[in-house]
Amino acid sequence: MNKILLFVIVLLAASCNRKPAEDIVLISTEYGDIQVKLYENTPMHSQNFMKLAENGYYNGTLFHRVISGFMIQGGDPTSRNAAPGVVLGDGDTNYTIPFEYVPQYFHKRGALAAAREGDDVNPERASSGSQFYIVQGRKFTDAGLDSADAKRERYAKSGILVNLLKNKGDTTELGRFRQYINNRDIPNINKVIDKYADEVNALYLQKPFNKYTDEQREIYKTTGGAPHLDGAYTVFGEVISGMDVVDKIAEIQRDDNDRPLKDIPMTMKIISKRKR
């Protein structure tokens, strides 16, 4: 009797010490399967992704935008049965998700993140309700990471300045500045930012981004990723198996709008669900 009781106690203790299940989703394509783990500290994004995957929302949608050395993007509901050559990427749910920035979640190779509209129309950086991307990325040097840091700061300040000029009603300066952004005219972008430096810096300091840690730098140098996106988009998960599939999809031939010439539909299935 005592042995049985001891056995039961051991089982109960093991059960109590067992980690709760994680949110894991299987993304299936004709090129193979990708398993992604969703982060606990981005609950709005993770739970939304789980809900859509569980309800079959993504089934039949395409990876509609792929860029080798950068990322693969999907989740546009209008991509389902879209005619060849149609420009995709504008479809979405009827809601957005508030920005959930967690500094330790960054755009390393295999990161799962939410797509969104740009800062000029979306200064709060709210995420698309359904569109997501998986980072393929590339490796960076220290000099490349310094340049990515500067690019992130310039990107953030450009978004602030666009909204500042909108509020001022200065349509002439706004139009000129947007043209510089579209043309990637860095010298003139910096010149206009400098012109409004005091106002821009005051707003920028209210939500600055964190510079890369030594650990993040090492990962970007040895494994790779897309560091210029850090702090601007919500990273809410990562690939735990199937990066070879991501690599295959990223290399597929595409048109001028980065849509693959051959459709890549997906289906999703819940593998594991965190206890809440």
Task: Report a brief summary of the structure.
This protein is 37% helix and 17% strand. With 276 residues, it is an alpha+beta fold. The chain has an eight-stranded antiparallel beta sheet with strand order 3-4-8-6-9-2-1-10.
Give a verbal description of the structure.
- The structure is a single chain.
- The protein has helices at 2-17, 43-54, 142-168, 171-182, 186-195, 197-204, 214-222, 243-250, and strands at residues 23-29, 32-38, 63-67, 71-74, 96-97, 111-114, 127-128, 132-135, 235-241, 267-272.
- Helix 3 runs antiparallel to helix 4 (171-182) and helix 3 (142-168) crosses helix 6 (197-204).
- The strands form 2 sheets. The protein has an 8-stranded antiparallel β-sheet. Strands 5-7 form a two-stranded antiparallel ribbon.
- It is 37% helix and 17% strand.
- The model has no long low-confidence stretch (mean pLDDT 91).
- The protein starts with a helix and ends with a strand.
- It has 276 residues and is α+β, with helices and mostly antiparallel strands.
- The protein is globular and about 50 Å long.
- The protein contains 8 helices and 10 strands.
The CATH H-level homologous superfamily of the largest domain: Cyclophilin-like
Which ranges are low-confidence, i.e. pLDDT below 50, for 5 or more consecutive residues? Answer: none
End-to-end span in angstroms? 36 Å
Average of the residue pLDDT scores: 91
Order of helices and strands: HEEHEEEEEEHHHHHEHE
Per the CATH scheme, the topology name of the largest domain is Cyclophilin
Q: Supply Rg.
A: 22 Å
CATH architecture of the largest domain: Beta Barrel
**Major β-sheet profile:** 8 strands, antiparallel
Structural class: alpha+beta
What is the helix content? Answer: 25-40%
Please give the CATH class of the largest domain: Mainly Beta
Number of helices: 8
Number of individual domains: 2
Strand order within the widest sheet? 3-4-8-6-9-2-1-10
- In what range is the share of β-strand residues? 15-25%
Instruction: Estimate the global geometry from the Cα principal axes.
Output: globular
How many strand elements? Answer: 10
